[in-house]
Amino acid sequence: MSKSEEFDIIFIGAGPAGYVGAIRAAQLGFKTAVIEKRTTLGGTCLNVGCIPSKALLESSELFYQAHKDFTHHGIELGSVKLDLAKMMSRKSKIVKDLTDGIGFLFKKNKITRYQGLATLVDSKTVHITDDSNEDLSAPVILKATKAIVLATGSVPNELPSLQVDEKDILSSTGALSLDKVPTSLVVVGGGVIGLELGSVWLRLGAQVTVIEYAQEVCPFLDKEINKHFKRSLEKQGMQFITQAKVIGFEKATNTAMNLKYQSLQEGASVKSVLCDKILVATGRKPFSEGLNLEGLGIQKDERGFVKVNSHFETSVAGIYAVGDLILGPMLAHKAEEEAVALAEQLAGQAGHVNYQLVPSVIYTFPEVASVGVTEEQAKAMGLPIKTGSFPFMANGRAKALGATEGIVKIIAHAESDKILGGHIIGPRASELLGEIIVAMEFGGSSEDLARSFHAHPTLNEVVREASLAVDKRARQI
Ligand code: FAD
Ligand code: NAD
User: Fold this and answer.
1) Of 417, 335, 406, 414, the residue nearest 369 (C-alpha)
2) Quick one: which atom of ligand 1 is closest to the CA of 18?
């Protein structure tokens, strides 16, 4: 006998899209259920993404500073030792606290949680199977009166020549749980994951080489910022091989491999790098296996993203999709905003996502954070612009922190002065970007930022000085 229950809205997947959307739906009075196949809530972001990576970035940065920087402050520590097991268990505790916290939020908001694999039966019915359910012929059946929301996220891209085993050849998940610092790590793919996780292991003592197919790493960044970024990572010891195609690998010894690659320059010979671990970080792809999209005729594009209209509705009425599963930047905050906007639209409100202002952050040191258009994009769009930049080097707080690398760059419309883009490389760039986003959301100008109070001494003063520099009136340089 199968068990059947009825809800207003059913979310499939409990990542940032599913769990935040469910909370908003419950706040709006909908009877809400979430189905998640993992035993823990929070999806990729909390379990094997944003949170564990930031925990390790923070710990490894402190380890690096203890080694290299504390002495400049007059602090002599003697020998600094790494306890990797403890660093990993701190990371796991942070993940556990946050994923358990979602369970608490579900209870508080009266959201019903189901653990198991969700499969669509029709536009109103979902069937849940669970490995722990011994009677698979009696699945749980859920009915949705208002909407079924697909929020099943994404998984890493695979490279046929480098099959991930999470032992020698790692995905981001394996690279977040190593029990030993590699002697030499090759990162295939110089995107956000490659540079963040490459930084973690570099700071902990690994030699790190990044092999990137494109002409430069992170080509989506403003060119001026990207130049600073690459120089800074190189100074820290990260090595880059760009415009190169990975061919495969050979075992060199029991513990070492030769990763073979070929430069994309014509006539280039095959070369190799000796390493003991390879991290494959060549992007992620939408995940919809097991949902039975084909059975219902739900359309996907050629890359597997579920097609939706401007109200997140798929090609089947009553079934919606949000987050990494649909086109757009694969970011937790974009997933959350979409799910919240959808819940509000289903409640008859004007839920909206401002795709022009999705921020992007790389949590390396220095951090890189940007919003809006780059200088190159503005020029390609034919927009008349003026730009202002200011270095952290000339900021008192940055000097006190001992973190003076980087700049803030503001791009404004040449006539209206409206801010079109903000780009930061520097200490806590992720946090500093916030004021630029808020100013842009309100249609603010560089003068608005320049005329607002900024406490002294703070890193935010660099944002203000960059805004003043748009009209060539920076004061502190
Ligand atoms: P997901 O978080 O992938 O959640 C989908 C959930 O659906 C999963 O838990 C999955 O188990 C479940 N599911 C799938 N199919 C079914 C099914 N049929 N039945 C039941 N459950 C199902 N983004 C940022 O914004 N900032 C960062 O700092 C950041 N760092 C990252 C670091 C790493 C290493 C990685 C890998 C990603 C990072 N991201 C970051 C990206 C971020 O994790 C994703 O954009 C975000 O998790 C997408 O949310 P989502 O809810 O769409 O999907
Ligand atoms: P990415 O798209 O950022 O970078 C992948 C890189 O791999 C690209 O530069 C690409 O040119 C390169 N590449 C692809 N195939 C290759 C090959 N065969 N050989 C060499 N290089 C190759 O993807 P990612 O770094 O894997 O991250 C996946 C997603 O997760 C991104 O969309 C990102 O937004 C998200 N993420 C975000 C954060 C953050 O916000 N801080 C952190 C981690 C991940």
Assistant:
1) 406
2) 51
Q: What residue ranges of the chain are covered by domains with CATH 3.50.50.60?
A: 3-155+285-355, 169-282
User: What is the residue-level pLDDT of the chain in tens, covering all 477 positions?
Assistant: 567 899 999 999 999 999 999 999 999 999 999 999 999 999 999 999 999 999 999 999 999 999 999 999 999 998 999 999 999 999 999 999 999 999 999 999 999 999 999 999 999 999 999 766 555 556 799 999 999 999 999 999 999 999 999 999 999 999 999 999 999 999 999 999 999 999 999 999 999 999 999 999 999 999 999 999 999 999 999 999 999 999 999 999 999 999 999 999 878 889 999 999 999 999 999 999 999 999 999 999 999 999 999 999 999 999 999 999 999 999 999 999 999 999 999 999 999 999 999 999 999 999 999 999 999 999 999 999 999 999 999 999 999 999 999 999 999 999 999 999 999 999 999 999 999 999 999 999 999 999 999 999 999 999 999 999 999 999 877
Ligand 1, atom 41: closest residue by C-alpha: 331
Name the architecture of domain 169-282: 3-Layer(bba) Sandwich (3.50)
Report the topology of domain 3-155+285-355: FAD/NAD(P)-binding domain (3.50.50)
**H runs (alpha helix) in 30-182:** 43-48, 50-68, 84-108, 172-175
Q: Is the CB of 200 under 6 A from ligand 2?
A: no
Ligand nearest to C-alpha 363: 2
Q: Edge to edge, what strands does the sheet with 419-426 contain?
A: 360-362, 367-372, 419-426, 407-413, 385-391
pTM of the model: 0.97
User: 453 CA distance to ligand 2 centroid (A)?
Assistant: 38
Q: Which atom of ligand 1 is nearest to the CA of 323?
A: 52
In CATH terms, is domain 366-470 a member of 3.10.20.320? no
Q: Which ligand is nearest to the CA of 285?
A: 2
**CB-based contact 373:383 (threshold 8 Å):** yes
210 lines ligand 2 (CB under 6 A): no
Q: Which residues are catalytic?
A: 456
